[in-house]
Design brief:
- This protein has about 220 residues and is an alpha/beta fold.
- It has a domain at about 1-25 and about 80-115 and about 170-220: Rossmann fold, CATH 3.40.50.300.
- It has 9 helices and 7 strands, in the order E-H-E-H-H-H-E-H-E-H-E-E-H-H-E-H.
- A 5-stranded parallel beta sheet has the order 2-3-1-4-7, with helices on both faces. It has a two-stranded antiparallel ribbon with strand order 5-6.
- Bound molecules: adenosine monophosphate.
- Adenosine monophosphate (AMP) binds near residues 9, 59 and 92.
């Protein structure tokens, strides 16, 4: 199965991806995580991406397309994948379609998790992350001890791009550059919509049922 998760920042894509990879054993590729690791490691990719990420802007298409297409051609993705954060523009979606066609594969479905802007701002401005990537929220999912990870005790930090000015910029970028993908995939009959304001468990139940159906259809 070749699946894509789409939605505004803070829709819960990462949370759902974690559960879905467990349910269906799919290799998971999150461009945001790949880029944050590259920045932390000080690689060439990280150097190119950092400025854009800190400003809440998208990294240029030619930088990110190569990274993800290489990953998809690799052994790990040979029997399927779950993409989170890619594609984010129509040129990225076209590049993905072309690459999959060359590999003789096609998308199984595009999962859209929808959340209104004011809820995105509420979620992201309270989000805190540990070094290992565990995510907390100061009001909805606080750690046991303020600003410390429950699991490894490391200091929790706020992502640079989760600051209020940057959140607004990321939302504007989402509406402007990524939302056109909704029509793009709807017209190809690939889009499946989920209400991201429901509880994470509810959203997961709905997505899991849909993905199970997509898998059956793929097998026919
Ligand atoms: P995320 O964790 O998915 O919110 O991604 C964090 C940041 O990484 C975004 O705000 C962008 O600057 C950059 N980024 C991630 N994925 C992409 C992509 N497909 N195209 C361009 N930039 C991206």
């Amino acid at each position: 199965m070749n699946l894509i998760l789409v939605g505004p920042p803070g829709a819960g894509k990462g949370t759902q991806a974690e559960k879905l990879t467990e349910d269906f054993g799919l290799p998971y590729f999150a461009t945001g995580n790949i880029l944050r690791d590259a920045v932390a490691d000080g690689t060439e990719l990280g150097k190119k991406a950092k400025e854009y990420m800190d400003a809440g802007e998208l990294v240029p298409d030619d930088v990110i397309i190569g990274v993800i297409l290489d990953a998809l051609k690799g052994e790990e993705a040979s029997s399927g994948f779950l993409l989170d954060g890619f594609p984010r523009t129509v040129p990225q979606a076209d590049a993905l379609a072309e690459a999959l066609e060359k590999l003789g594969r096609r998308l199984s479905g595009v999962l859209l998790i929808d959340v209104p802007d004011d809820e995105v701002v509420r979620r992201l401005s309270g989000r805190r992350v540990s070094k290992s990537g565990r995510v907390y929220h100061v009001d909805f999912d606080p750690p046991k001890h303020p600003d410390r990870c429950d699991i490894d005790g490391s200091a929790l930090i706020q992502r640079d791009d989760d600051r209020p000015e940057t959140i607004r910029k990321r939302l504007a970028v989402y509406h402007d550059q990524t939302e056109p993908l909704v029509d793009y995939y709807e017209s190809r009959d690939l889009l499946r919509r989920f209400d991201g304001t429901r509880t994470p468990t509810d959203v997961h139940d709905h997505i899991r049922a849909t993905v199970a159906t997509l898998r059956l259809e793929d097998e026919l």
